[in-house]
Amino acid sequence: MKPIQVGLLGIGTVGAGTFNVLQRNQEDIRRRAGRGIEIAMIAARNIERARDLTGGAVEIVADPFAVVDNPDIDIVVELIGGYELPRELVLKAIANGKHVVTANKALLALHGNEIFAAAQEKGVMVAFEAAVAGGVPIIKALREGLTANRIESVAGIINGTTNFILTEMREKGLDFASVLKQAQELGYAEADPTFDIEGVDAAHKLTIMSAIAFGIPVQFDKAYVEGISQLQAADIRYAEQLGYRIKLLGITRRTHTESGEGVELRVHPTLIPASRLIANVEGAMNAVLVQADAVGATLYYGKGAGSEPTASAVIADLVDVTRLATVDPYSRVPHLAFQPNQMTDVAIMPMSEITSSYYLRVHVQDKLGVMADLTRTLADAGISIDAVMQKEPGDQVDIDIIMLTHQTREKNIDAAIARIESLPAVIGKVTRIRLEALG
Q1: How far apart are CA 179 and CA 19, in angstroms?
Q2: What's the pTM value of the predicted model, to 2 decimals?
Q3: Among 98, 140, 205, 247, which one carries the catalytic annotation?
Q4: 429 a catalytic residue
Q5: Which DSSP helix (H) or strand (E) runs through 389?
Q6: Beta strand pairing status for 37-43 and 4-9?
Q7: How many helices, marked H, and strands, marked E, lie in the chain?
């Protein structure tokens, strides 16, 4: 059979990895796909660099629309990144009857509903394994491997930059700013790391996984997002002493309340018991823990970024699309696992209604009765304490008191914190970090 012709939009880190892996493993890929897969055209900003990377064997153009409008291209691989230009290109490719493979989680988190609807109408596929957790095949697992299950929750370390920073802070006792600078020097963090350190990147990925897990539209605008830039080295140290690790987690789960079923969609620093496997995922690695009714807990672990790990996912999508290109569109796996007419619009829960346990650090004057005031304030809000640690003052006149609570509604802990901060002996703001047992 004639090889599938691929048009590549962008040949940066992931694009170069995709070209190299496809060339290196060409024969094995052909045997798996049933026909050859060839990159026939590449759109690149730096044409000379692209020619050097490809050895001059591929047509290189500056205009990405020349790729999506080329009638000889069967599959468009979008690796540009960003929002608006990729959206235009992907929708144009779909309108032209071309299948699309993308690693662009931001694009799908913001415009996925529009893109999937357009692809469904045109009878083409949009594949996006590389958009979440790099080379870890979590999309295929959620969409196909766990099809028999009612998925209850997904919790993931899905940003390697923040996981590297938190690992270094814990192992070396360094502050956030020092480790961020180190991460930038090593290439783990961008010059502008905002999307990573403030949790936006993780929220993009979590939004996509939530839609697949629960059969709901992608709803990034409703995600709660909190990053690690305000995290103190002291809290990582105290958490360790209490038997916990702090990770930036993306969490989505089914929730049942008095008003009915809802879905949690939240990204924030989280205490996890150190005995859990996911708590021991270190460095720039990713891991996703899925809880489902039939299979129980499954954990997916691996490199969440990088040239060839992400290229691995891109090429897996290319093989899937190649195999299914001639199949009746209604026989393919739906983009978000559930048939488009079977999607539900379950409400995303506001953070005030979610239930969690909490780590509280209160900086206080070392006075008689302070502990009694704190415990009374929590009790008045209906919050029970699971553990308390008080750091000895030494030569200081003020101390840290650390408390772990049992589960309570977020609105209850917010109200209690407001009252605690008004106590005369309390200095500054209370540090609050959510705690998940993930048992």
Answers
A1: 33
A2: 0.95
A3: 205
A4: no
A5: strand 385-390
A6: parallel
A7: 15, 18
